[in-house]
Amino acid sequence: MSDAPGVDKKAYLPWKWDQATTADGRTIGLGTDVGPMAVCYRQALFKATGLPSDLESVGRPWAGDWDLAVKVVQGRTSQGLKMFDTPWQTAFSKSTFAATVCPSWQQADIQQFSGPSNKGKWNIAQPPAVGNWGGSFLAVPASGKHVDEAKKLVAWLTGPEQQAKVFQKAGNIPADQAAYDLPAVVSAPMPGAAAVNHAHGESDRSPWPGSEGVNFRLPSGDAAEMGWAIDPAGLYDLLMATSRAPPGLPPVITENGGAFSDVPTTDGQIHDHDRIDYLHRHLAAVHRAIAANAVPGL
Fold it and tell me: Per-residue pLDDT averaged across 152-180, rounded?
C-alpha cells in the first residue's frame, strides 16, 4: 500500500504505520484512525456527589498515576457492565453510571446510546496514563480484480481530508498527522470538541509512552506475516497455568489466528498451507492440554 498514489509514510504516526508493516517491510494496510484513551464522565453526576466536574479538575488528581490506571482496568468500571453488551448500552440513557474508559472512537457510541435527552451531558478528561485502544486500517486483497483502482480508493479514503471529516462526524482521531491542523479537526463543531482535543491531544502520539526509542525484540522462531510469533507451546503452557490458578473456571479461547498470504497459485486455488499448519499445531497443543485434564469441557 505504500506505493499507492498520494500516500505519504512520513505523515502517519510511526507506530500506526508499523502496525500494518510485515517483517519483510511490506505495508499491507493504511490506518484510518487511532484510539487514544481518555475518561468520559457525566458532569452533573460528578457534581451531585461532590466530585470535581470541570475537565481540568477531573483529570488532575490521577494525572500520571500508573498504579491507579491498573486499578481502573482491574476494577468494576461502568458498574461492572460488560462493554458493548445491551445492558451497557442502555445504561447510558438511564444514567446508570457516571464514567467509563473512553478511546476517541467511543464518542460515537456515547452519542448513540445516550439518546437526545442526554445530549451535551458527557465530557472528556485526561486518563491516568497515556494509552491507545483500537483504530482501524483499510487494505486491498492482492488477489483482487482491480487492485490498482482499489489502492487509489483506499489512498483517498485514508487521506488527511477524509480522516478529518470522520473526526468531525464521529470523533475518531486521525492516523495521518497532516489532518491535525485542518479546520475540521482544530475547530470541530461538535459537543465537547474542545475537550476532545484537550483530552486526546497528547495520547494520540504513541500507545507506548516513554518507549519511542526502544527496539522490540522480534520472535526467534516461526512468525506470521506481521511478525507475530507462532508459538503453539505457549498456548499449551498458558492453558496448563490457568488450569492451576483461581477461580477454577473452564477457559474459553475467544481468538487465535495468524496473518498469512492468501494469493491464488497458478491453478487458481488458495491452498493456504501456512494457515492449515498454524491451526493444526495450535489444535494439537489444545489436545495435549485436554489429555492432561487441564481443559475440562473444551
Answer: 88
